[in-house]
Amino acid sequence: MDDSEIVRLLFERDEAALEHLRRKYGAKCQTIAYGILKNRQDAEEAVSDAYLAIWNSIPPEKPEILCAYLYKLVRNLSLHIYEARGTEKRRANAVASPISELDYCVSSDFDLHEAYEERELSHIVNRFLKSLKDEDRRIFLCRFFANMKYKEIAKKYGYTQSRVKMSVQRSKEKLKEQLINEGYYNEKQY
Q1: What is the residue extent of each domain of the chain?
Q2: By CB neighbour count within 10 A (0-12 exposed, 13-18 middle, 19+ buried), where does 157 fall?
């Protein structure tokens, strides 16, 4: 079933939409959540919470890219669960470090983590993701949404690590350019 059909079912409040979401995107959602939480039960909780969140947000929301919308929910809920654990040992790990690599793209008075939650920036990122080639989009999503290391991405897709790093670097530059065009970056600061 394609995404527009799933969204239509959600608008009709048909619970079958959740089953279609689970079948189509469940494995990737689990991968994203587990990549952050490193705990199967917590990952399952984050994914279940994401399905509930998508049920509660559609309607009125009508995401342009359903999988990106769902993956963002899973990632954010996983990060909330991670933070709720509250142990210093876990906080010392660099779970959010890949997204912090994008901090240089925005001006210093602009908090990327906070802005990422905002609808306008979310639309900009979605447009950016649509503009990437499929291969580069997969690499970018693995790095910044699934929190995968370069080595893991290279192994998953059969690329060299340098190919993955180059793709990430080019994508970051494209995102920076798009953010400049959208007024979210001040070049004079850098």
Answers
A1: 1-92, 96-183
A2: middle
User: Taking the model in full, what pTM does it have?
Assistant: 0.53
CATH for the stretch 96-183? 1.10.10.10
End-to-end CA distance of the chain: 46
pLDDT on residue 17? 92
- For 187, which DSSP code? G
Judge contact between 75 and 36, C-beta under 8 A: yes
The whole-angstrom distance between residue 14's C-alpha and the CA centroid of its chain comes to: 26
Look at residue 95 in the predicted model and tell me its pLDDT: 52
Q: What is the pLDDT of residues 127-142, one digit of tens each?
A: 888 899 999 999 998 8
Q: Report the distance separating Cα 190 and Cα 91, nearest Å.
A: 29
- What CATH topology corresponds to 1-92? Rna Polymerase Sigma Factor; Chain: A (1.10.1740)
Provide CB contacts within 8 A for 32, sequence distance 6+.
71, 74, 75, 78, 145, 146, 147
The model's pLDDT over 65-91, given as tens digits with 9 standing for 90+, comes to 888 889 889 988 888 888 777 644 444
The CA-based angle 165-170-171, given to 5 degrees, is 100
